[in-house]
Amino acid sequence: SGILYVVATPIGNLADITLRALDTLRSVHFIAAEDTRHTRKLLSHYDIHKPLVSYHAHNAEERGPELIDRLRQGEKIALVTDAGTPAISDPGGLLVTQALEAEVEVTVIPGPAALIAALVVSGLSTHPFAFLGFPPSRGKGRRRFFTSYAAVPMTLILYESPQRLQRTLEDILDSWGDRRISVARELTKKHEEIFRGTVAEALEYFSENVRGELVLVVQGAQEKNEPEVLEEDWKEELGRLI
Length: 242
Ligand code: SAM
Fold this sequence. Notes:
It is found in: Cytoplasm. This is Ribosomal RNA small subunit methyltransferase I. There is one protein chain. This protein has 242 residues and is α/β, with parallel strands linked by helices. Helices cover 37% and strands 21% of the residues. It has helices at 19-27, 36-45, 60-72, 92-101, 114-120, 139-148, 165-176, 199-205, 230-241, and strands at residues 3-7, 30-33, 52-54, 76-80, 105-109, 129-133, 155-160, 180-185, 193-198, 214-218. Strand 2 (30-33), helix 2 and strand 3 form a beta-alpha-beta unit. The protein is elongated, with a radius of gyration of 22 Å. It binds S-adenosylmethionine.
């Protein structure tokens, strides 16, 4: 049968694409893209002419089986999304699962992902970390989201839209406390900006209208300074003193 190539594309700067990604986009039968107009810009920049098929959140259910059929018939398909690595907070994940269920070979052409780009310049611990994706926008699910990660001792990475940044920073401050945070805005683009400070400082800094794409990297819950062994150590120390 065919091959599904999961191809990472730039998160802003068109030059951030690998040679292998370009070769793959040139060699496949067709490209499944989240937004064909968006992808066409990338392709024409590199003078690549390939049929595009749209594959996005709203047509994934019907389009998925069609694509799987074509893969089974031996076609090679590249899956791309609007930015970065497909399946990371975008529609690609479902197609990968379906392809694997159909025993189709799936292979990755790695490249940019906003979460990794933001993590490495955050100044926060790069491991362990947890990627939380977009927080639920409202209701119980949202409350549960923030409370359930409050005690996780890992750097936490979130995606958020500029319209929701304020509210999300407020909820982080309420549920997780005034930790260190880095907010990466417009990575690899002309107006790239990395904020580093505390959550309260970020709230103040981003109080005006915010534009662009954002990744939040938040310090994990700090382990208590009193580990269980402390009592033992303390008794030993006391014994030595008296
Ligand atoms: N698949 C993508 C990836 O690999 O990162 C993520 C897709 S998700 C639909 C889009 C979100 O990723 C944006 O809302 C933003 O949180 C983040 N993002 C994408 N590009 C970015 C950039 N250049 N700078 C900052 N954040 C970015």
